[in-house]
Amino acid sequence: MNERKGAATFQGNPLTLVGDELKQGDRAPDVELIDNDLAPVKLSSFRGKIAIITSVPSLDTPVCDTETRRFNQEAGKLGPDVAVLAVSMDLPFAQKRWCAAAGIEWVRTLSDYRDARFGTTFGVLIKELRLLARSIFVLDREGTVRYVQHVKEITKEPDYDAVLKAAKALV
User: Which residue among the candidates 64, 126, 163, 166 is catalytic per the annotation?
Assistant: First the structure.
């Protein structure tokens, strides 16, 4: 499997991302993730909608918490044709607890804890930490990647405006 050394950093220290980098125009891999009730969910189940997929290291960290709360606020304004998904390696139980405590209504959290298939096929698995790098993918209704944002320093927030602009352009 391809490894991209230095593709991300944590507090300035280089990290290795495992998997090929998914690019604009690529077909999104149809991976299976686990929802908060331990049910499997395939990404293809969101076809027919615009999908904003945020990849975060852990919902229990300040930046991931802030990012997911912000996307939850924005998701409520985007309408029913847009699905916002937050994917992490957090256990489904932890995701469910965090969502309840944070009042998350519009973002669907999904876990990649079982086999890191999302991480490796989207190219965002951090080898050194077995967490996901901070990245965002916007998919069109057919599951094609139309926008990608990799946040090099994982302690930084993404460019929300650019993500929302890309998603709104597809609606």
Answer: 64
* Domain housing 16: 3-170
What CATH number has the domain bearing residue 16?
Answer: 3.40.30.10
Give the span between the Cα atoms of 43 and 65, in whole angstroms: 23
Count up the domains in the chain and report the number: 1
pLDDT digit string (tens) for 22-75? 999 999 999 999 999 999 999 999 999 999 999 999 999 999 999 999 999 999
Concerning whether 99 is annotated as a catalytic residue, the answer is no
Note the pLDDT tens digit of each residue in 81-128.
Answer: 999 999 999 999 999 999 999 999 999 999 999 999 999 999 999 999
Please tell me the distance from the alpha carbon of residue 4 to that of residue 17, in angstroms, as a whole number.
5
